[in-house]
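Appendix C reproduces, verbatim, an entry submitted by the partner laboratory led by Prof. M.T., so that reviewers can inspect both the input and the predicted structure.
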Amino acid sequence: MKDENLFDPAAQEAERLEVNRLIASIDTAKLEEYASSLRNGIKSKIPALQYDRTKRSSVMGGMNYHIEIRFDDAVVWLARIRRFNSTSPPPLLRDYIIRSEVATLKFLERTAVPAPKVYGYALATDDTNNVGTGYILMEKMTGRSFNKSKSSNTQLRKVVLQLSDIYVELSKYPFQLMGSLDHPGTTHVGSFARESLTDVNGPKTTAIGPCSSFEEFYTASIQLTLDLIIRREMYAEQAIDAYLIHRFLLDDVLPRISIRSSQEPQFFLKHPDDKGDHILVDDDYNITGIIDWEWSYTAPVELAFNSPIMLLPVARFYNGEQSICEEEEYFASCLKSKGTEQLAKAVKAGRIQHFFSFCCGYDLGDWTGFLGLFQGLRDAAGIDEDIAWDQWRMKALRRYESDEGLQFVLHSFDET
């Protein structure tokens, strides 16, 4: 997916300044020295760092900048460094996100999931860190990012079949809480390691989780959104609509889709950004690695193992259609053939989970996309499915006319 910011000259210049500041803060000699110490003194070299927008996709994503560390014996590592700018979270939260990613990758080393091996890391706030920034030293995996749009149906199915093996592998490792791994070398689950799930209110930082249920998690998450709307930190341009939408998600939809089990709840590791470019493949479309585990969390079966975003039929999905597509049907059949009926069911019945998760915190600047998703969610949940947006909005305004939060928003925001 193209980054629209690349076509904005002001955004390009801001990014150039940001990355150059980051590069200037890195003591590459100290990083080389530390990397070499981890390989019994084999010398390493970091190529001269400079911002080059033409190579952007190969070294930088939305949240991280990557540096190659080349050893004299031809081994190559990556230093994964978190970007920071005016919108970045406080240093302690950035460090927590790094530590959680390390904990996740360390856990994955115990499994058959092909993920990068971690060799070392340091947090920005560590007194012993003399590199100038937080970082993770990790394996540079072979392969290139999978691109569904440039793949044939045969190639896609080969990747999907292998992905089903990875889902089955992850299903072997249950956790008792919903949250993020937070202590490298352990399976301890702590609060969610993600900016959008953390309330940064002045000097006070409060992260959601860990949670004992799907309902507890989404109650806290949606309530945080409502609080941020009231504080003018989210949806300032469309606060009334956003408030009504999220009240409805919390009060009406969540109880309908809450996942309740007669057994002790179990949660499983979920990749947070499964659009497809997190999968590395070789020229024969064999999966060589699964990367970008930042923001990973544990989730119930229905959420952890529903269709990856890369398989969603984009036009139909944003039009609110509930049926899953042929690729998802194939994915479900792969899971079923491996004896994991519960995982196959999560795919086949997972559309409502997608609609719900997309609607929570959705960017209302894409109003057409939102209306389709919102209609699809109401259809799937069987709530107000027969009325259009304008009618639904008037109904919601009447329903919440005595809600203190809505009254505050109505009287505090100048909306037309």
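Residues 317 and 373 are 7 Å apart (CA to CA). Additional entries are available on request from the coordinating office.
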